Each structure stands twice: as C-alpha cells, then as structure tokens.
Amino acid sequence: MAYIDPHIHMVSRTTDDYRHMAAAGCVAITEPAFWAGFDRGSPEGFRDYFRQLTEVEPKRAAAHGIAHFCWLCINPKEAEDVGFAREVMALIPEFLDRPNVLGIGEIGLNKNSRNELEVLQAQIDIARRHDRLILVHTPHLEDKLKGTRLTMDALRDAGVDPGRVLIDHVEEHTVGEVLDRGFWAGMTLYPDSKCTPQRAVDIIECWGSERIWINSAGDWGHSDPLSVPKCHVEMRRRGHLQALVDRISLHNPTAFLGQSARFRLPG
Ligand SMILES: [Zn+2]
Predict the structure, then answer these.
(1) What residues flank ion ligand 1 with Cβ within 5 A?
(2) How many A from CA of 9 to the centre of ligand 1?
(3) How far apart are the CA of 136 and the centre of ligand 1, in A?
(4) What three-state secondary structure class fits 175?
(5) How far is CA 32 from CA 68, 157, 173, 194, in A?
(6) CA 93 / ligand 1 centre spacing (Å)
(7) CATH code assigned to 3-257
(8) 174-196: per-residue pLDDT in tens?
(9) What pTM was computed for the model?
(10) Which ranges constitute the DSSP H helices of the chain?
C-alpha cells in the first residue's frame, strides 16, 4: 500500500534506497534542505545544493515512480554567521517558483542562540511574504522543549497560521504543546535516537492521529530510509487498522502538503 515519507534527505541516499522504498510502497517524498555534515565554504555552495534539490533529485526519484518535493533554507547549524546566512537567504527567492518547491524548511533552532533566532525570523518572513508552507526542525535532547517553544513563539509573533507549519522531531514532552497550539507535528523515526517506531506508536495511542505524521529523516548518518514502513508493521502488530496507517502516512501528509498547489501524488 502507498505511503509518503515527508522528511528524508535523499541526496545522502543510494539508488538502492530508492528501489527499496518504492518496493515498500513509497509514492512521494519531501526533502528539506539541511546540514551536509560539514559547513559549506561559500553561499554558492548552497546554490549548487538548491539545484540538486530542484533539478537532480526529482529525476532520480521519478526513475522509481516516486514524486519528489523539497523545502529550501539555510539550516540552523550554519546560521551562526548571520552575514553568511543573509547571503544564502538572498538566493532562495530565485528558486522558490521551481515546480517541486513546497516552502521553507527545515528552519528552526539548534543551540537556541540569538543569531540562530535572528536567521529563523528572517526565514519565517520569506515564507510569509511568499505565502509558503514551513517545515521546522527542533533541537535535540535538553534543548528541545525550549527551542520548540521559542520557535512557536517566533511563528506566532510573525502572524503565521499554525495550520501551515509542521513542527518536526516532536517527542513525548513536546507533542502535546505543538498540537494544542494548532501546529502539525512530525515524528522522526531513528534507529537509536529521536523517536523509535515503538515510541511513535505509543505517542499516537496517547495523542491520537490528528495533524500528525511520521518520517524517516534518512540522511548521511545512522538512519533507516525504511523506518516508515517498519513503523506500520509495529502498528499492525498492535492490532491497529490499516485505516490508521493510511491516515498517518497518506491522508495527513496529503492534507498538510496539499495546501501547496504544487503537491500532487503520482498517477
Ligand atoms: Zn532533516
């Protein structure tokens, strides 16, 4: 059966990963811009990356029957140098009208620093001015709750409709506040950090299935591009119906992403 992986970094994955995801039923992915594992040497490095996300990766995905969409930004890990970040942000508008670009992401905070917050606010402003969806990265571990709240406050202060924002990497201690404030919530499934498939199903059982999705966030680190279908196995093992699986991994992503006229499933 068909599913969407709404957060995965395919530039870091092999062609075999595409093959396996397609065989498992993946019909569409969305790929946020993120940290490459090293800081780019110049803003022009981001121009090449945005070309990869908008020109190269859609073709790789299409070869496996998978629709590819993306999000553009400078990630919080490279946002400490505000002057550098401003040069990168100046590149974004020329790519925003490309056909697979859904919005701005994954923006957010990493260490919750003042400079990161300034760059976050500037990128929220780009999304607001161009009326685009937003995908938010939240910090890890001890910084997560504070960073999630700071980000939600920045979005509120900018007058952004929370229904057009997905807050990703939620965990047990952040999911309630994210949903209560009207945002969409994403659970990132990692083999040994963030959320395991078991914890994700626990969270769905506690918080319900409205405005929530799961994703693999597969990247260049230890991660599993098949963690979404593996989480479906855990849901079925616990006796959940296929309708719930479809809601989490097909209907909810389609409802959120479909707020952009560019989002369309293949076929
Ligand atoms: Zn990511």
Answers:
(1) 34, 217
(2) 6
(3) 9
(4) helix
(5) 11, 24, 24, 17
(6) 21
(7) 3.20.20.140
(8) 999 999 999 999 999 987 766 89
(9) 0.97
(10) 15-23, 43-51, 57-62, 82-89, 92-96, 114-130, 144-157, 175-180, 197-207, 227-237, 242-246, 252-257
